[in-house]
Amino acid sequence: MDKVTGASLQTAGSAGGKTGAAGTDAAVARDKKLRKACADFEAVMTYQMLKTMRRTAPSLTSITKYPGKETYDMMMDQKVAEELSRRGKGLGIQDLLYRQLKGKVAP
Description:
The chain has 107 residues and is an all-alpha fold.
């Protein structure tokens, strides 16, 4: 047994195979952290998609070129992406990612 992994197994597995409230709380916290990471990933991916879509859309009028518009668009796209990933199941990417990573995340 490796010294590094043996030490982490003793603290995570409560040394005798018992799972107490501390182990359950740690598992719930880890699960919540994984869900948040998956939602954040979906928000970043959605933001990149919106940013690319905005770049490819032609500007229709000269009024679309005023100072600060790019910053405003960036902030709006970030908020839209965050809200999309936060509401319900988002676009579904976070749920897929969560299901794939759930069993693979080390305690």
